[in-house]
Every structure is written in C-alpha cells, then in structure tokens.
UniProtKB/TrEMBL annotation:
Alpha-D-glucose 1-phosphate binds at residues 107, 172, 187-188, 205. Keywords: ATP-binding, Carbohydrate metabolism, Glycogen biosynthesis, Glycogen metabolism, Nucleotide-binding, Nucleotidyltransferase, Transferase. PANTHER family: GLUCOSE-1-PHOSPHATE ADENYLYLTRANSFERASE, GLUCOSE-1-PHOSPHATE ADENYLYLTRANSFERASE-RELATED. Gene3D superfamilies: Hexapeptide repeat proteins (2.160.10.10), Spore Coat Polysaccharide Biosynthesis Protein SpsA, Chain A (3.90.550.10). Pathway: Glycan biosynthesis; glycogen biosynthesis. Belongs to the bacterial/plant glucose-1-phosphate adenylyltransferase family. This is Glucose-1-phosphate adenylyltransferase. Its EC number is 2.7.7.27. The keyword Nucleotidyltransferase applies. The gene is glgC. Residues 15-284 form the Nucleotidyl transferase domain. GO terms for biological process: glycogen biosynthetic process.
Length: 423
C-alpha cells in the first residue's frame, strides 16, 4: 500500500485578510473605494493577490475584515470569489465592522479586527491563522512559511523583505540573530540593523504574520483588556512577542513564487500614485518583473463577460494600434496610438489620440486629438477632444493632481471643475 502524502499545513489554516484601511496616499483613487479594491493589472483588484496566494497555497478558509468605503470591495468579492462551498469545508466570509461587540465600537486597530471576530474564527476549527494585508502586490506560497513556523516552534513568524539598509528606514525592521530569531523590532529606524552575514541589507516587515490560533486567541483577549494598547499587531502584539516570546523572521525570497521569466522576488506596496502608476506600467515591459501569465499560479479575479478588444482604422496618422501595452476586453482602439500603457476593461480611445505610459481604469473614454502621457485616469473618466496632459507641468497641476515625480491623476470631478472654469 502506498503511503499517503503528508497533509499540507494550509489545510489546517485560515487566511484573515485585513482590508479596512483608507489608503489615503492614493488620494482620489480611494474617494469611493478602499485601497484593496483599487484596480490593478488590467483586470484585477489589489486584494486579488493576497486571496490568490492563499487559494493557490491550498487555503480554503478565508475571512476579509472591511471597514472604510467597503461597497465596491464587497461587491467584487461577491462576484469574483463566490465559488467557495460549505459542503467542501470551504469558507470565505466578509466581516465588515458592524459593532458586533459594542454598539459604539468599530475596529480600533488591526488586532481588534480579529478580536471582534474570535467566535467566527473559532467556528472554522483551524490550527493556524495567517494574518495578511489586502493591499500589496506579490506572489507567495504560504505553505512554505507555515512549515518554517511549525518547524521552529515559533509564537509568531513574520514575513520579511530583504531591502538595502539605506531604504529600510521607511519600514518596520527586524533585528535578527544568525537563526533568524527576531531580537528587536524597530519602526522606521534611522540606522537599520543589517542581517547577520549580509550587513548591507535589512529585513523589513511585510505585514504577514503566522500564529497558532490558540496562542493568538489568548493574546488577543489579553490585549483587548489593556486600556493602554492601540490594539494593533505592529505596534502592540508583535513587539510584546519579540520581547517575551519567540518571534521568527521568514524571508520572502524563500517562498516567493517565480515563473521562468521572473528573476528576483517581486513585492510592491502600491500605496501612492507614483507607486501605483509604476507597478502597472512595469507590466508593459518586454520581460515584466511580475509575470501575470503564469498559469501555475493564477491571479484569480472577477472576469466580466465582455467582447474581445478591437482595433480599427489603418491610415497614416489614424491607425488603431498598441505597442508594449496591455489592452483588456471590451476595449476599442479607434484610430489612436497606444504605447507602454495599460487599458482596463471597456476603454474607448478615439481617432488621432496618443496615449503613452497611461494607466486607464475601466470605462475610460479618450476623445479625438488627445495627447496623454504619464498619467492615471480614474474609472469612467471622459477625456474631452484635444486635451493635452503630461507636457506642461504647471497646466497639469492647475487642473489635476500632479505628483512630485510628474505623474498626473485625473478624475471626472477634476475634469468637470476644469470645464466649468473654462466655460
């Protein structure tokens, strides 16, 4: 008789995704949606990466804690992630801040979001819980991190990026010994500690935590009773475990999923307009740093039933074409030129227009003779005929939001205000 393969630890785990943050650094992109619900990569939302990593790792029990402007996020989950079946012991619960514990109490912090749902986590009958941020772009096999957690008998295992020490000042940094046991946790230190044997780099927290549920459950209950706590993993629980327990660092490079095209671990916090624009534009590279075409590790999402993309007109100066670009379904490129750009579902670009290094979210329409460069166009924007963006910084800043790096964010409200001012 053949021996049964060992059970994957992810079969005994759940993913608890924290998706309630405002994402204020994305400015107007989060006026009507939470940061995890912001579009990314032509078809997806940012939260799809954490959920897809969990699903591809073998996790079939998930919960998503929402709070800030959650409607579009909840609708996306209901439409795109509704294939979990209770009869297969699969669950995906959406947990809005609903004053379940106290009628005056919303989620007070990341740890409190879990504390207020302890009874729901208990009902899953799991042994391990993986706490995830819902607003980062990366591919990772959580099974590998879980195995390290179990093998080292850790109280908590923290996912960590390897970053140059000079850049680590913007992160929470782990001071570790030669066995990757965390001896200190430093929030945005002026002089970050190096890694033993690799002093030029530091280990920065990814906001990914693995716990035994029984251990975390007791910790959360004690934290809830502490009036001096902010009830946050990074500020309260993790430093306490580092000081009084056993906290281990897990290198992202050890569990990052890479296809044959990717050459180095890829993780991005797309929390600013510049970072959001750059990460999307990076996908248009001949060999992108993040491979979305990896069929062995798909990024699951809600796929609309739409017609294929279409390109029309073939005259000099009026040729529907796209070069080094991603063009989604239901897009019509009509006599316009698209270069190094990304068009989400349902975009229309009309004759004699030029788009270069443009991220156009769904349902954008670009009028004739427009010249758009280095910009992000919010969902549903209608660009009037002849509009020029990306050539005159002062004019861009007058009407739109222009970043220090020169990336221009355009929303319909901005366009309407411009139209009123110009009469």
């Amino acid at each position: 008789m053949n021996k049964r393969a060992p059970m994957r630890l992810t079969n005994q785990a759940m993913a608890f995704v924290l998706a309630g943050g405002r994402g204020s650094r994305l400015k107007e992109l989060t006026n009507t949606r939470a940061k995890p619900a912001v579009y990314f990569g032509g078809k997806s939302r940012i939260i799809d990466f954490a959920l897809s990593n969990a699903l591809n790792s073998g996790i079939r029990k998930m919960a998503i804690a929402t709070q800030y402007k959650a409607h579009s996020l909840i609708r996306h989950i209901q439409r795109g992630w509704n294939f979990f079946r209770e009869e297969r012991n699969e669950y995906l619960d959406i947990l809005p801040a609903s004053q379940r514990v106290d009628e005056h109490k919303w989620y007070l912090g990341t740890a409190d979001a879990v504390t207020q749902n302890i009874d729901i986590v208990d009902s899953y009958d799991i042994k391990y819980v993986i706490i995830l941020a819902g607003d980062h772009v990366y591919k990772m096999d959580y099974e590998i991190m879980l195995r390290q957690h179990v093998e080292t008998c850790a109280d908590v295992t923290i996912g960590c990026l390897t970053v140059p020490r000079a850049e680590a000042t913007a992160f929470g940094v782990m001071h570790v010994d030669e066995n990757l046991r965390i001896t200190d946790f430093l929030e945005k230190p002026a002089d970050p500690p190096g890694i033993p044997g690799d002093e030029g780099n530091s280990l920065a927290s990814m906001g990914i935590y693995v716990f035994d549920w029984a251990f975390l459950r007791d910790l959360l209950i004690r934290d809830a009773e502490d009036p001096n706590s902010s009830h946050d993993f990074g500020h309260d629980l993790i430093p306490a475990i580092v000081k009084n327990g056993k906290a281990m660092a897990h290198r992202f490079a050890d569990s990052c999923v890479m296809s044959g095209l990717e050459t180095e671990p890829y993780w991005r916090d797309v929390g600013t307009i510049d970072a959001f624009w750059q990460a999307n534009i990076d996908l248009t590279d001949f060999v992108p740093k993040l491979d979305l075409y990896d069929r062995e590790w798909p990024i699951w999402t809600y796929s609309q039933i739409v017609p294929p993309a279409k390109f029309v007109h073939d005259n000099d100066g009026r040729r529907g074409m796209a070069v080094s670009s991603l063009v989604s379904g239901d897009c019509i490129v009509s006599g316009s030129e698209i270069r190094n750009s990304l068009l989400f579902t349902g975009c229309r670009t009309h004759s004699y227009s030029m788009l270069s290094h443009v991220v156009a979210l769904p349902q954008v329409t670009v009028g004739r003779n427009s010249d758009l460069r280095n910009c992000v166009l919010d969902r549903g924007v209608f660009i009037p005929d002849g509009l020029v963006i990306g050539r005159e910084p002062d004019e861009d800043a007058r009407w739109f939001r222009r970043s220090d790096a020169g990336i221009v964010l355009v929303t319909q409200d901005m366009l309407d205000a411009r139209a009123r001012a110009l009469g």
